[in-house]
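COMPLEX REQUEST
Ligand: pyridoxal-5'-phosphate
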Amino acid sequence: MNIPFLSFEETNRQIKSEMMQAIEKCVDSKWYVLGNEVKQFEEAYAKYSTTQFAVGVANGLDALHLSLLALGIKRGDEVIVPSNTYIATVLAISYTGARPVFVEPDLRTYNIDPDKIEEKITPKTKAIMPVHLYGQACEMDKIMAIASQHGLYIVEDNAQAHGASFKDRLTGSFGDINATSFYPGKNLGALGDAGGITTNSEVLYMKCLSLRNYGSNKKYYNEVIGFNSRLDEVQAAILSVKLNYINSWTTQRIQLSNWYIDRLSACSDLILPATASGATHVYHLFTVRTDKRDTLQQALHKSGIGTLIHYPVPPHLQEAYRHLQYKKGDFPIAEEISNTTLSLPLFIGMTENQVNEVCDVITSFYR
Ligand SMILES: Cc1ncc(COP(=O)(O)O)c(C=O)c1O
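STATUS: Structure written out below.
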């Protein structure tokens, strides 16, 4: 038995010829940077996201960084972020000079606990960054209410949750400005690095167009010190092809996860993912938790089953953030998740039999 953690085999089989045609069209267009492909994808992605505007950028980290810059977040400001997020959310805050302020997640959903946000708000707080972790939408109604009461911006990190929703509204459409990643392994992924920003504000949209292109919206005239963070034509063309499949791929992810939940629910040693009321989960990752995480991972590995840990070290304990002077125990929920979480294989084309095989190894491990 050999079940990888992630495989592109089936998606490539389904759409390889469409992707090759899209690439050929780019080659033949003889226009390789900021051309029709980027424009078309931006329009399609904005429509998909139910926002007025989308901006294609080089990667998800840049999407977060440029979103914060567009809002004017700067040194001296504080930005609220979940303590168990992927490091990119925190890095983006650091790039602006602002300070990341960690709020613990809910141990059931792994998303930021809305009830713990207000105690972290100070006069310096400028924004809240909800991260729809593993593919589950955050409880956006509570978060939006807190932001509006305190006059704070919301910047969603939607890198892992294309197509998820809270109370029927899509993630990536709630915030003042929102960032996503199209890293290949994401639910909507390019064939290399790529990212995107969504917003309903024309002002923020224009700022992002400028920031990603040397701070210029008119060739050779620079209004701000910008970056080169353009989505390239070939990646945009690939993303346009894949966008047509995202809904059916999401349905498959949910089906695979339901099989996992069904087969593993009798296993009392294992904590399965829980979805908050009102939220949907698009299962970018199917994560379980167990005190025997490391030995379970070894047992799966011995049986040829790939797993990963998202994430082994929470941001406050990363060497890069030593200067914030946090220590073990400061964010016990994030630490508990890091110590116990394990992501099982889940990819388009995975079969019910493969899910059963993974579950068989897990149940015999506990027997
Ligand atoms: C939650 C989250 N935020 C941000 C990023 C950064 O995206 P990228 O790798 O495209 O820079 C990722 C993915 O890597 C992510 O999972």
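REMARKS: DSSP finds eleven helices and eleven strands in the chain. The mean pLDDT is 98.
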